[in-house]
Amino acid sequence: MREVIVIGAGPAGMLAAGTAAEKGAKVILLEKMEKPGRKLAITGKGRCNITNLKDWEYFSHHVHPVNRYFKPAFYHFTSEDTVKFFNDIGLPTVLERGTRVYPASQRSFDVIDALKSWLERLGVHMICSCQVLEFVTAQTPGAKAINDPGQSNGSHSADYPDQSSGINASAQITRANASANIHINDERTNFLRIRAVKVRNPRGEERLLTANHFILATGGKTYPGTGSTGDGYALASALGHTIEPLFPTLTALMPVDYDKRLEGVQLRNVGIELYTEEVLRRSEEGELYFTNLGIEGPIGFRVSRQAVVALNKGQRVSLHLNLKPALTREQLMARWEREEAKRIGGGRSNIAGVKGEQMQIKGSADDLSRRLKAYMPVALIDPFVSYLVQSGLHPVDAMLKWEFPIASYGDWARAVVTAGGISMKEVDVHTMRSKLVENLSFAGEILDLDADSGGYNLQIAFATGRLAGAGGGTSIPALT
Ligand SMILES: Cc1cc2nc3c(=O)[nH]c(=O)nc-3n(C[C@H](O)[C@H](O)[C@H](O)COP(=O)(O)OP(=O)(O)OC[C@H]3O[C@@H](n4cnc5c(N)ncnc54)[C@H](O)[C@@H]3O)c2cc1C
C-alpha cells in the first residue's frame, strides 16, 4: 500500500487526504494548528460560501491570473461535484443569489465537522499541532539513514512516537538529525525525490516522517492567526520551485487622506469604477463598506486585485463611487432641479447656481444636509459635503463620481486571499503533481491561482485537493 503525507488540513488538504484514502492509500494529514480548518471556520462570515455554481464559461472569468491552469481541476471536480460531495457526506446545502452555495445550517463549523467525519471514516490519520519544518531529500545530511518507502516496498523503517504524544501514526518517523537541505536529482529517476518531512510534533520534538508521496496544501499568507503563514512557499522553494510574487487580494483599499467619518458606512446598490493611470479598468455594482481599513465590501474586493497590482507598480489608482448607478446624469439632475424648484417656491433656497456645471454652496450647511438626506445615508452627508467643497463639483456630479485616490491596501493580516504562489508552469495541471519533484503534488491557495469572492476560492481548494489526492486520476500509479 502506498503512503501519502498531506501537509495542511485546510479545505484543499482535507479533500486531498480523503481522496487519496479513497484510492487506497494510507494517509497521514499533518496540521500545525490544534484543529483543522481554522481558516475555513471564518469563511463567508462564519457561514462558508462553499462554491459557486456558475459553469466554466462564467466561473473562469473570476479566476486569476491564468484561469486555464485551473480548468482541468475544475472539470475533474466541478462546482456541482462539490455540492454532491458535501450532500453525500452528510452536509445539506442551500443556494443563495442564484449560484452561491452555503451549508443549509449556515454554519462553517458544520462543513469542517462533515469533512472531519469523512476523513475518520476513511481512516485518514490526522495529526494536529504538528508543523512540517522541511522536506528531506536523498542529499539532506542524515537522510541516508531513512529507508525510503518509495524505494523499499513500502516497509516502515523508523521508531514511532507513542500514543501519549498524540501521534499513533502508521507512517515512518525517525529522530530528526537533518539540518541543511541540499538537493540534487535522485540518481535513479533523474527527478528530485522527497524521502521524509521533518516535523515538530505535538510534544515539541523534531521527528522525521516518511512516505511515498507528499501533498503540499499549506495555503497562503492571509489571516496568519489561522495557521496560514506561508510556510509552504519556503518548503517548495527549497526544492527548487519558483514562487510567483505574493500579494494580498480581496483586500481593503485605503484612500489618500481618508475621511474617518466614513468608517462604518455600508452602502447598497452603488457602483464603483477602478481607474489606474487615469484609464477605466473595471466597473462594479453592489455593496461597498467603509471600514477602519478603507474601502471594502463585495465590490471593493472585486476591484482590489487590479488595484493592488497597479499600486505595486507605482501607478496612480483611484476609485470613483457612484451613489446612484441606476440613474443617468440627466435623470438625477432633473430630480435635483424639481426638488430645488419646490424649495425656491417655498422661499427656502440656499444653494445658488444649481443649473451650472459647477456650484457654489451658500447659506446654511444644515439646509444642504437636510436636502442630501433624500439621496444618501445620513452618515455619508458630512464627508460628502466636504468633498463638494473640496472638488467644487455640482452635488449631482459628485453623487455620480465621488473620487477616492487610493494610497495603499490592506496587508496580510486582513486580506482574504493570497495572489501569487507556486508557479503553475512547474505543476502538471492535469494531476497537480510537481514537474520538478517526483513525489510531490500541490493543492489549494499555495498555488499561483486565486479568485474573486463568491465561493470561487474554495472551489479552487476543493477541486485541486480532489485532483491532487487522486494523483491525477486512477491511471497514476503512485497513489493507487
Ligand atoms: C475571512 C475570510 C473569508 C473567506 N471566505 C470565503 C468564502 O466564503 N468562500 C470562498 O470560496 N473562499 C473564502 N475565503 C478564502 C478561502 O478560505 C481560502 O481560499 C481557502 O481556505 C484556501 O484553502 P487551503 O486549504 O489552500 O488553505 P488554508 O485554508 O489556508 O489551509 C492551510 C492549512 O495548512 C496549515 N499549515 C500551514 N503551514 C503548515 C505547516 N508548516 N505544517 C503543517 N500545517 C501547516 C495551516 O494551519 C492551515 O490549516 C475566505 C478567506 C478568509 C480569510
Describe this structure in words.
It is elongated, with a radius of gyration of 27 Å. The model is unreliable at 152-188, 347-362 and 472-480 (pLDDT under 50). The chain has a 6-stranded antiparallel beta sheet with strand order 14-21-18-15-16-17. It is built from 13 helices and 26 strands. Helices cover 28% and strands 25% of the residues. It is an alpha+beta fold. A hairpin with a 2-residue loop joins β15 and β16 (279-291). The chain has 2 domains: 3-246 and 416-479, 3-Layer(bba) Sandwich (FAD/NAD(P)-binding domain), CATH 3.50.50.60; 253-409, no CATH class. It binds flavin-adenine dinucleotide. The site of flavin-adenine dinucleotide has 39 residues, from α1, α2, β8, α7 and α13.
Q: Radius of gyration over alpha carbons?
A: 27 Å
| Strand residue content | 25-35%
Unreliable segments (pLDDT under 50, ≥5 consecutive)? 152-188, 347-362, 472-480
Q: Judging from the principal axes of the Cα atoms, what is the shape? A: elongated
Oligomer: single chain
Structural domain tally: 2
Bound molecules: flavin-adenine dinucleotide
How would you concisely characterize the structure shown here?
By secondary structure, the protein is of the alpha+beta class.
Topology, pairings included?
Elements: E1 3-7, H1 11-22, E2 26-30, H2 38-41, E3 51-52, H3 56-59, E4 63-64, H4 71-76, H5 79-88, E5 93-96, E6 100-103, H6 108-121, E7 125-127, E8 131-137, E9 172-175, E10 194-200, E11 206-210, E12 213-216, H7 231-237, E13 243-249, E14 253-255, E15 266-276, E16 279-291, E17 294-296, H8 297-312, E18 317-322, H9 329-345, E19 351-352, E20 360-361, H10 365-372, H11 378-391, H12 395-400, E21 402-409, E22 417-422, E23 427-428, E24 433-434, E25 440-442, E26 450-451, H13 456-469
Helix pairs in contact: 1-6, 1-13, 10-11
